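Board notes, transcribed. Complex of a protein with zinc ion.
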Amino acid sequence: MKFFLFALFFGALLPLKAAPLKIVAAENCYGEVAQQIAGPTAEVLSIMSNPNQDPHEFQSDAATARAVAQADIIIENGIGYDSWMEKLLGIPGKKSRLVIIIAELMHARKGDNPHLWYNPSTMPALAKKLAEVLNKPEAEAVFLESMKPLYEKIASLRTKTNGVKVTATEPVFNYMATALGLEILNEGYQQAIMNETEPTFQQTVAMEKSLLTKTARLLFNNIQASNASTTRLLTIAKKQDVPIIAVTETQPLTEKNYVTWMLSELEKIDRAL
Ligand SMILES: [Zn+2]
């Protein structure tokens, strides 16, 4: 009896096993960084994680809606990239939930290039925000340390890339291209592909000319957003010996983390120039 009372007393004092923190990230690169900051006990669900799908055409389903409604922290890119998430956030969820909008952290506005994770300053901003909210300054420090090889690679590659003219099928890589000092041609064409509209005749002519004359020294090919028009560009680039750099919107499942992903894309540029 004595023991029973003792057990009862201490049992009441022991906290119930805390429910794991639930984080839902619209894009898997943000989810991966969130897991690093929140730690292994947090349950992180990344909605867009299929590198074979065009994210600009993504439609959410009922399971996603449920996950968002049960989340403690939700991370979305914003500025129209994941507008499906805006709709899901209209469904009531946890009262205490926190919504982190990357575009707000980065002071990006509607109409800006939405591929914000290609800006090398974005993940540190997300890590900082999460570390503040979750009180994990050590995790932030570890993450920032892990970003160092990426910054070193950008700095060393820039000696080769600064001022070099390049073009792209779609603007996914352009923030990183800017960080490398690359001069980006044919942005109107790229925007049209991103928005799933036909580039104008003039945009197409200018784009093809940049490859035919080899004014563009590289062609960035977003393999997640292709159509007949971009396929034609690849044919021209191959014929003209303009190196094609394959890039993706979604972090490939084969990559260990965001840093290795970015480094492998930068490595391709390094080899091509
Ligand atoms: Zn895109």
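DSSP finds twelve helices and eight strands in the chain. The two ends are 80 Å apart (CA to CA).
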